[in-house]
Design goal:
- The radius of gyration is 16 Å and the shape is globular.
- Strands 3-7-6-4-8 form a five-stranded mixed beta barrel.
- It is 33% helix and 25% strand.
- It has seven helices and eight strands; from the N terminus they run βαβαβββαβαβαβαα.
- By secondary structure, the chain is α/β, with parallel strands linked by helices.
- Helix 1 (17-24) crosses helix 6 (185-195) and helix 3 (101-111) runs antiparallel to helix 7.
- The protein has helices at residues 17-24, 44-55, 101-111, 132-139, 149-158, 185-195, 198-207, and strands at 10-14, 35-39, 64-73, 83-91, 94-97, 117-124, 144-146, 164-172.
């Protein structure tokens, strides 16, 4: 009797050391298949380089890719600790549709009862967005912005067909601008939320597991 093919791996990409720490200290049990948590470094160029390099490794060649970490919310009424599930990511390189958005929302609500989950376009930037830039991006239809998700997903699909998604935790919002992460209540709240997202990521991965080619 032949051995069933191994499941495709999951690559979870984040930018910052504090995001990596939150994910590494979260619940690592319950995954189907191998999981790699990759710290890419800050900014779209760093994310592009790190993700392209990781997916060039044979063990990750067909990995599902999920970008995560912190973001700036754009819509009034958003609060630190809210979750953003992208239905697409946008940047100058184009738009990448996300897979399994509804499932991620359902699983995040289950994992983090009481937390608000927003769904919509997540846009990329090469710098921290402040002031009128927030309003401009909101007017263009985006609900949140960060510097790595769009570059991560664009690099992932360019390396080959695969499921991709992006889930971010709001750490900075129009009425709650962040000064320095870890020293304000919003940063601490976002860190705790990010520690709790892995079970939802594993369920997303489990729902779309693809055998290795």
């Amino acid at each position: 009797m032949s051995t069933p093919p191994a499941p495709a791996p999951l690559l979870i990409a984040c930018a910052l050391g504090i995001e990596h720490l939150a994910l590494r200290s979260g619940d690592r049990g319950g995954a189907d298949g191998p999981v790699t948590v990759l710290r890419t470094g800050m900014g779209p160029k760093a994310a592009q380089r790190a993700v392209t390099r990781a997916l060039a490794e044979p063990a990750l060649a067909d990995a599902a890719v999920l970008a995560t970490g912190f973001c700036a919310g754009l819509a009034p009424g958003m609060h630190p600790g809210d979750l953003v599930v992208a239905d697409e990511t946008r940047d100058a390189a184009g738009t990448v549709p996300c897979v399994g958005t509804d499932l991620l929302v359902k699983e995040l609500v289950r994992a983090l009862p009481g937390r608000t989950v927003h769904t919509g376009p997540l846009t990329g930037s090469d710098h921290v967005v402040r002031g009128h830039e927030r309003s401009d991006l909101l007017a263009a239809g985006a609900i949140a912005v960060d510097m790595e998700s769009a570059a991560t997903l664009h690099s992932a699909v360019r390396a080959g067909p695969r499921p991709v998604a992006a889930v971010r935790v709001v750490v900075d919002a129009p009425e709650h601008e962040l000064v320095r992460i870890g020293t304000v209540r919003g940063g601490i709240s976002a860190f705790r939320v990010l520690r709790s997202v892995l079970p939802a990521f594993y369920e997303w991965h489990r729902s779309l597991l693809l055998p290795r080619r």
